[in-house]
Design brief:
There is one protein chain. With 280 residues, the chain is an alpha/beta fold. The protein folds into 2 domains: 139 residues, D-Maltodextrin-Binding Protein, domain 2 (3-Layer(aba) Sandwich), CATH 3.40.190; 103 residues, D-Maltodextrin-Binding Protein, domain 2 (3-Layer(aba) Sandwich). Helix content is 33%, strand content 26%. Strands 1, 5, 6, 7, 8, 9, 10, 11 and 12 form a 9-stranded mixed beta sheet that branches. The chain has a 3-stranded antiparallel beta sheet with strand order 2-3-4. β8, α5 and β9 form a beta-alpha-beta unit. The longest helix is centred in the C-terminal third of the chain and has 17 residues. The two termini are 36 Å apart.
Length: 280
């Protein structure tokens, strides 16, 4: 049976904090009680528990009931190289860092962009460089080729993504400087929900990871197209572990180096058509 995590409501009250913990409880079989006896740094000996948003192809999605995509595949390869077995906790993107902090998984593998704000919450292991693309309805004529082309438009983005702040602050300031209206950013709990909003005409465009945009556009059979000419706001993505978790960070860093050495890393990039992703 598919394990899902219900949407969490942000709250600064003690009751809200308890609600978050309750919502996340039961999602993982691991125990948050420190390093496993095998020295891997995982919560449970022999197991690497991975938090991932399984609604985000080609990075992470469900093939039937099986986690699939680049992040589940590389997680399994990292676990194998470390003498571990990977298990997965399907968690909405916005809740991943909270779930890691409360001990419901060992590592986040979900195309998590590395930002200064997130570095204060988790420790990162960079594993490739990516960026965003603009997606529009193909029937609407030529779409925006860059972020300033989004000025005054309604734009779908994934909730909690780095792109939210980029569009609301940096890009919208550029709009103001040229005398145009700010970008109307609409957040959706999952990327497919944003894509559906675009298809139904609720928004003018969607901004999402370049590989995700390509997968979505291909899936719609030509109804959607990528209008941007190059990746927007290139950024490194990283696996994330708890801050100060030096044992697990070393375990995964060593395993990633082995995957790059033996060719597995390059094979996975090719398998999921992540040609725009550059090795960090």
């Amino acid at each position: 049976m598919r394990v899902t995590v219900p949407a969490l409501i942000r709250s600064t009250t003690a009751l809200g904090a308890i609600g978050v913990l309750l919502a996340l409880s039961g999602c993982s079989g691991g125990s948050p009680e420190g390093e496993a006896a095998d020295g891997s740094g995982t919560m449970t000996a022999g197991t690497l528990t991975v938090g991932s948003d399984l609604t985000y192809p080609p990075y992470a999605y469900l093939d039937g009931k099986t986690p699939a995509g680049f992040d589940p595949d590389i997680s399994r390869a990292l676990a194998k190289a470390s003498g571990l077995k990977a298990t997965f906790v399907d968690t909405r993107f916005e809740q991943l860092i909270a779930g890691l902090g409360t001990g419901h998984f060992d590592v986040i593998a979900s195309d998590l962009y590395i930002t200064d704000a997130r570095k204060k919450q988790v420790d990162f292991i960079p594993y490739f460089t990516t960026g965003n693309s603009i997606m529009v309805k193909a029937s609407g004529g030529p779409g925006p080729t860059g972020v300033t082309g989004l000025c005054g438009k309604t734009v779908a983005v994934i909730k909690g993504g780095q792109i939210v702040g980029k569009l609301r602050d940096e890009a919208s300031k550029e709009c103001g400087a040229k005398g145009a209206n700010a970008i109307d950013v609409r957040e959706f709990a999952t990327d497919p929900e944003g894509t559906q909003a675009l298809l139904s005409g609720q928004v003018d465009a969607q901004v999402t990871d370049g590989a995700v945009a390509k997968a979505a556009a291909d899936k719609t059979g030509g109804k959607l197209t990528i209008s941007s000419r190059e990746l927007i706001y290139p950024v490194q993505s990283g696996l994330a572990v708890k801050r100060g978790d030096t044992a697990l960070k070393k375990t995964l860093t060593d395993a990633l180096a082995e995957l790059k050495k033996n060719g597995t890393y390059a094979e996975l990039l090719k398998k999921y058509n992540l040609g725009q992703a550059q090795e960090s």
